[in-house]
Every structure is written in structure tokens, then in C-alpha cells.
Design brief:
Elements lengths: L1 H37 L7 E4 L10 H8 L13 H9 L4 E9 L3 E8 L2 E6 L5 E5 L4 E2 L12 E3 L6 H16 L7 E8 L3 E9 L11 E9 L6 H17 L4 E8 L2 E6 L4
Parallel strand pairs: 1-3, 4-7, 7-8, 10-11
Antiparallel strand pairs: 2-3, 4-5, 5-6, 8-9, 9-10, 11-12
Length: 268
Amino acid sequence: MARLQGRDGAFEWRNFFVITASALSLLGVALGIWFAVHSSLFVLRVVEVADLPDSAPIDAQAITDLVDLPLGKWNLFLIDLSPIEKRVLAHPWIRGVTLQKRFPQTLTVSVVFREPRALLQAEHGRLAYIDKDGQVFGQVSLSRQPDLPLVSGLASRQQDKIGEALQLLEKWEKSRLGRISQVSSLEFEGERGYRAWVTYPLPATAKGAALGRGRALVELGQEVDPELDGQLDRLQSVFRYLSGNGIAARQIWADAGKKIVVRVTRGS
């Protein structure tokens, strides 16, 4: 009987040592965390803006200002990245952001910028950019991508129509039609629908040509054609014929199915 008690006592001592060692380990971890959180070794010293292209619409200092963290005051362990992400994404030009803590003292910021696909002339004549998702943003600077097509006749809140107009412009640009003609502006009118001012090459001697370019108003209808690719192919044939024969067109109706009507300038 005494032997059994001896074994039980040894078992209890082993449990005591295991529990004590575990508690001391946890205490050591807790102390390590406390010292790390309160140590000057991990205080933020650098906000690094990574991979910023030369053509970026805003500079590194502007992005650092959006981060809005004073150096030398914040421990890297204690920095909450969520509010910083919200502040950076609040800038109209920034589409996405990645924040990374690089110990011991650096916060790295990588941003993705919106890419303008067109200009929108919205309410009261205000100009803004449209990105590939149809998002309206930013203040227009004519020194940045001045050759973007202009979309007018739509309010900035008409997201569906803006997306539709953008789809039309992108399809035009990427089609064979886009190789010989460019849309300078796309207007939406309540009664007539989409109307595009288009330029195309003409011999400099052609009547009605300006600096070797013809300019015509193309009527496209109330809605983007469900068979837009076919509509653009038909227009491509028309513009190729006009360009190849030096004919300056004034107006083109492409809103009546497969039929296209062309009004040429007098004397062409």
C-alpha cells in the first residue's frame, strides 16, 4: 500500500513541475510581448511608398500624408491597419492599397491607381474621369491624357448608362474600326440616343478635310446595339470606303439595323 502512495506522490510532483513550467513559459511570452510593445526598438521610423511609377497622379509625400502616422510615436505592434486603409482609399485616384508591417521599424504602402478611360462632362459642365469600372472620380487636368474621349449628356449618378457608354467606347477602340477612326466625344440625348463625333483619315486635298482628317457625327441609337460587334464591322467598312475614296462625311446613321445612311459634305 505504501508503494502505491509513493507512486502517486511522484505523479503529483511531475504534474506540479509541468504546470509550473507551462505557467513560467506563458509568463515569459507575456513579458516578451509587453517588452516588445513598449520597446523603442519597434517604434515606427519609416513609412515607405513602394513601386510608385513616374507617371503616378499623386506623389509619395501625398500618400504618406494619407497614412497620417507621426514617426517616432507609434509602436509597430500596436498600429491598426484598417483605419489607415480607409484613409488611403478615400483619395479619388487610389483604387486599391496594400499595407505591410516590416519589422522592426517600417510600414510599407503599395497603391493601385485608377486608370482613366474617358472624361465625363456631368452636371453644370463639371469634368471628371471615368475608370474601366465606370467609376466617376477625380479632378481633370488637361496635362494628363488629353486625348481621352469626352462623354456628355449623362449625370454622374447614372452608373448604368455610364457603364454602357464606356463599353461602347472600349469596343470601338479595340475593333478593326478603331484602327481607322477615333471617337473624340460621345453624347447621349434623350430623343436621339448615343451620338458620336468621330475622326478618320482623309487625303489633305479632300474637300472638307482638316489637316488630313475628316469629322463626322455618327448616330448610334437609344441603346447600345445587342449585336455591337456587327454594327462596328459595318461602320468599319463605311469608314474604310470614305477614307480610301477621299470622301468627307457630315453625318452617318447607324441606328437602323443593318442599314447605314451617310450624308456627305457638299462637293465630296
